[in-house]
Amino acid sequence: MDVVLSAENLVKVCTARHLGGAKTAIRALDGASLAIRAGTRMAIVGASGSGKSTLAMCLACVEKADAGAIRFQNRDLAQAGAAELREVRPQIQLVFQDSSSAFNPGFTVSEVLQEPWLLQRKMSAAERRERAGELLAQVGLAGNILRRMTRDLSGGQRQRLAIARALTLKPKVLLLDEALSALDYSVQAQIANLLLDLSDRSMEATERPAIVLITHDLAMAARIADEIAVMESGKVVESGSTRKILQKPEHAATQALLACASASPSSLEKRPGV
Amino acid sequence: MRYLARRFLHAVLLLGGASVLAFLFTALAPGNYFDEMRLNPQISSETLAALKAHYDLDKPLGVRYAMWLKSLARGEMGYSFAYNAPVAPLLAVRARNTLLLTLTSTLLAWCIALPLGVWSAEQSGRWVDRVVTGASAILLVIPDIALALGLLMIAVKTRWLPAGGMVSVGNEGLPFAARIADLARHMVLPVAILALGAQPILVRHVRAAVAEALEEGFVRAAEAHGIPRRRLVWKYALRAAANPLISLFGFSIGALLSGSLLVEVITSWPGLGPFLLEAILARDLYVVIGGVLLSTVFLVAGNFIADVLLFWADPRIRTE
Amino acid sequence: MVVLFGLLTEHDLAGANGWLPDMELLLDVRNLSVRYRPQGGGEVFALRGANLTISAGEIVGVVGESGSGKSTLASSMIALLPSNGVMDEGAVVLQGTNLLKLGRGELERVRGSRVSLIFQEPGAALHPTMRVGAQIEEVLRAHGEARKEERRHAVRALLDSVFAGDAERIYFSYPHQLSGGQRQRIAIAQAIACNPKLLIADEPTASLDAVTRREIIELLKKLRRERELAILFITHSVELLEGFADRVVVMYAGRMIEEGDARSVLNAPRHPYTEALLECRPTLGRGDEVRNDARIPVIAGEAPDLSVHSNACAFEPRCAERMKICGERVPEFYESGNGGRVRCFKFGG
To answer: Between chains, do C174 and B319 touch, taking CB under 8 Å as contact?
Structure first.
């Protein structure tokens, strides 16, 4: 399958600005490389501070990398100008962990969904309403919430809405930065299934967005993604098919993550105290 | 330390800018000190021109600014036409009096506002809080000038306090302690006007900052660890509220300074206020510029003090 | 002890089978009900008649999703509800004292010295402009250690027991200089500073990554061993309780719906909700499920509405095994057959 979005040797130095104005430089990305293939599901896993969120920001062109290349459909986004980026950005969408802060609390669900189309000025009002209804159905939200304010939605509903909005412009890549982590397990499962629905293999590979799940939850990553990339200190230290990562982990970081995630009944038979 | 150095540089630049602006605006204002003489038939236009030339008023603005800077370096800050003397020594005496008034009232205002605001925040919603917020709302709607005149009237009617001036007649002959007591009696009225006028804003800000801090997670966590309520309020919450309050402290010095200019005029306190007013009316150019600049120095110094306090109080600024 | 046992109802003893008789009862929560009055009006019934016992040195895991009432349980146990919370009835009896009947001063003495509570966000739980060492000292000071030298000494010892090393540097650090895991360790040090018998931990690992999460769990295990500290560990991450908790309580819509030995509840859950909850959490397999796009089992339906006081099993609308009776009244606790008890009509009624 074709690579739709890739990063080569990305470097991003974050200068943390302190209250007093002093600065410290941190290499959040230190030569990270990654290839996302069209219509597949990938997970980027790593401990906090490994640079996975920064990588997501750079891939979504929200942050500019200091060095390296980002290729999207044979274009180098790291070198792209503002006009070109404006054209590309709708095709790479990013959903955050805390979507409550991503919406204007005074907007209705309908306004949130229609805003991208309004900005593009390509659709009539009737068309927009129809498409908004379709999108809601696609992400499993009832049509009657269109008039609700976004602040009145539950965490799960807001996350579905965030995904729906990300889908408004039919992106080629959907990046989810810890988008499940703050949710209850039963809701996580629902959203995970929604992601599986969106990228179901019964659709053409070009019809479905590539899904990139950025998470520290290896169990969920392994359940959804075809491929897993493991990050540590700003680099992708190991990547491969989910089977390969789970069954033959090579890098120490991968092994550590696996050990933490699988501290389940079988591996921890000894019971303390009792 | 780099933070403080940066703030200091900032302050100096600000002063430089203020001096340029003061020059520009006084130059733009219509008329000058010698205009009134022109109406006087006994003074010939030649004399007038000679006077102007003597005081360099015929030179272009840039040159005058450069000359003023030079005189500033000599510690003169230009020349007063009305007093026929260098400006700096004239200003120094008045500035000392103004500073005495401003600092005392700043101190007093905070000594009242801080406990009152904290108490009000701690008792949020109860009668103490209602009384305090109600009283400060009333004070807020009374204009400062009305407050000043009201207190002045009380002083005059009751004769408890001297209604004006800084010292009584014959003050010089008294022993030191009595002279201080006399000064203090004269200070009561202007300080009271200033401190009272500042209350509503200060109390409200203190109350809001402390009330907000009391809602923070770490206050609740400390409560869960059994830290007594009194300590939660006076140590945890007040310390967390320090940042906005310190900034407000810097601002309050400036506000009280400009307030004191007015109060000085009303209570005939021999400070910068009456002196500046007189100079403005007489278009005594360099005195006006000097006075404006000195006020700016106080303001900037107040803010710099606030910055230093902030540096001391917040480790997030101190440790990088 | 005799007195305490006398206070227990038969009902409590039924569930206490197996582990209670040989352990000292430490804390007894009885019929605790809490509701909130949100600003916009209406009422939220957050906790509906919670009963819970904890023995000395026991680790009890409370599992629940948002709205299950687990955090309300934690804060109401030391009478630290938000100002819009109303405690309607119930008692929290700690070694013979009902904490909910204490005055403010008495409560301040109990909190931190006999029961401690730590929170989810360790960053928010520490004062931003006080050194962490001093913050631990404050707790000792509040509970009567007047000598400064003694306090310093005690704080060093505490830091040594919660950190692997570097105690000196950490003592003088400010919270913003520490990582999330380190901050949580500080919060734990504060909580155990005065040797409480019980630590209530309200989602202490929710904001940490997987590795740090494990480390904190290991630390808590160690503290239990060393200090006979009983821990009430509240979480929505069921898998954390494996190999950690002795007993597990499952909450749903403000009620406890299943309780029992950790191994039985986690491996052979009896309540349909517990079963469904465990199933929707993916476990680390071999990576084979992905290839055929297999979906994860989910719990159908919406989370329960807490603003209505219903007379039915709260899980009934979402339950795959619902019966007629489930919509008619709230089930009592019944023996689940594996040593625990469960609020489900499948097992009695």
So the answer is: yes
